[in-house]
Amino acid sequence: MAKRKKTSNNIDIDTSTSFSGTIKVIVAILVIFVLFYLLTVVILNHRSSKIETNNSIEYTKILAGSTFKIKSNDYLVFFYDSTSDDSSDYAELVSKYRNKKKSLEIYTVDLNEGLNKRYISSDANKDVQSIKDLKVNGATIIRIKDHKNVSYVTENFSDYLDSTIE
To answer: What residue numbers bound the domain in which 42 lies?
Structure first.
């Protein structure tokens, strides 16, 4: 049998680092952090000056399902289709009514919106008293008093709105 010779390789590793080398690494890291901080501050300040927010919430446009759920005791709900030829006339009529003194609160329902389409019917229910019986056929104003339908109007909106001013 052949004898194997054991050899050992001893590697000497110098793990000591100089004090000045450590200081240089720490200073380099601090410089990088300061540069990133300054860059972040500049970018955020630049962006924040350009951001404009619109914090207004539309409280007068409601879904048809909310017709009888408004907390007010006496109000009007105007149903119309925003894609109809008369929609701009209806919007102007509602705007003028809101600007009058002693007018009732008026809410609008766009029948063109998906959740409101199920309330459109060829036969309007003028005696509606709950949401499950609500059916409108085109532009309609319903006056709700104490959560009950007190009037259902499908024409002469301007005259009707003038008659509701107290």
So the answer is: 19-51
